[in-house]
């Protein structure tokens, strides 16, 4: 298993730049600014340092704990954008793809309606999406998306979803961090969300990206399903 690292490049101009996360080729000889992974670890011996330091820590923790690192996947090359940066045809195509993933991933009572009016009539509802090309020159495919609503100095995060095949590879965290940086630049003061207490992977993602639990409400989603309100203060360092 080859474990790769990524770098972040923001391209484009205006209010909805596209974010590209590119994997770096790993060299058999140690390049500059690298961290050494012991040869006995089931991973490449060298990995480029990059902002996603938790990716490196995960590999090092595998070795220090005597675990195999085969479960540490290489984060794919991804491009993040906003449907409002697209023309009508492109936006409707992306929304249709998101709707299919949403229907497949969530129970019917928890699905968000990704209708065409999100592009036409709801400028305060923002839909970010991430795509990845399965091979050089191939058509990019949808791999993740997030939906939030701006309310003056706040943002309410409705949904974050990564396709099942690419979960636990850093895609969700990259999308969340991009959203946070974007909202900070727009003057947003905090982001709020609700999460099912039983969904530990989602809670862990939000905690890693700076969210803190503020409130619990029993039976919030359904009888026996507790909801947790989490908040990220964007006016503090995140």
TrEMBL record:
**Tell me, what is one Gene Ontology molecular-function annotation carried by this entry?**
acyltransferase activity, transferring groups other than amino-acyl groups
Matches recorded under Gene3D superfamilies = 3.40.630.30
Recorded hits in PROSITE patterns, A to Z, give: GNAT
- Indicate the transmembrane segments per the record: none
Q: Which residues form the N-acetyltransferase domain?
A: 81-235
| Superkingdom to which the source organism belongs | Eukaryota
Q: Which SUPFAM superfamilies match?
A: Acyl-CoA N-acyltransferases (Nat) (SSF55729)
Report the CDD domains cross-referenced here: NAT_SF (cd04301)
Q: Which InterPro entries match?
A: Acyl_CoA_acyltransferase, GNAT_dom
- Protein name as catalogued: N-acetyltransferase domain-containing protein
């Amino acid at each position: 298993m080859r474990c790769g690292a990524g770098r972040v490049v923001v391209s484009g101009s205006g209010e909805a730049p596209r974010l590209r996360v590119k994997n770096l080729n790993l060299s058999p000889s140690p390049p500059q600014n690298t961290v050494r992974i012991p040869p006995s670890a089931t991973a490449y011996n060298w990995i480029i340092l990059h902002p996603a330091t938790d990716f490196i820590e995960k590999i090092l923790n595998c070795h220090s704990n005597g675990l195999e690192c085969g479960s540490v996947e290489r984060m794919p090359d991804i491009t993040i954008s906003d449907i409002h940066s697209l023309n009508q045809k492109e936006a409707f195509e992306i929304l249709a793809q998101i709707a299919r993933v949403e229907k497949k991933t969530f129970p019917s009572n928890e699905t968000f309606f990704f209708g065409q009016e999100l592009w036409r009539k709801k400028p305060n509802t923002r839909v970010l999406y991430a795509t990845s090309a399965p091979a050089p020159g191939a058509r990019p495919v949808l791999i993740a998306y997030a939906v939030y609503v701006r309310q003056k100095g706040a943002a309410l995060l409705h949904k974050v979803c990564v396709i099942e095949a690419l979960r636990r590879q850093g895609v969700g965290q990259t999308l969340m961090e991009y959203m946070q940086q974007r909202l900070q630049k727009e003057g947003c003061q905090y982001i709020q969300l609700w999460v099912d207490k039983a969904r530990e992977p989602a809670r862990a993602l939000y905690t890693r990206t700076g969210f803190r639990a503020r409130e619990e409400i029993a039976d919030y989603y359904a009888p026996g399903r507790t909801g947790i309100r989490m908040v990220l203060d964007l006016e503090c360092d995140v």
